[in-house]
Amino acid sequence: MTGLLKSGIELSFAKESGVAYQQSEFHPEQ
Fold it and tell me: N- to C-terminal Cα distance for the chain?
């Protein structure tokens, strides 16, 4: 169960990082 929890956390982190990266590309001035 710990492995599943870790995967969920990593997946959420990757998703948030991806969104932040895309936003920075769409709005480089920010």
Answer: 39
DSSP assignments along 1-30, one per residue: -HHHHHHHHHHHHHHHHHHHHHHHHH-TT-
Distance between CA atoms of residues 11 and 18, nearest Å: 10
Residues of the chain with pLDDT > 90: what percent? 0
What are 29's two structure tokens?
């001035």
Rg (CA), the chain: 13
pTM over the 0.70 mark: no
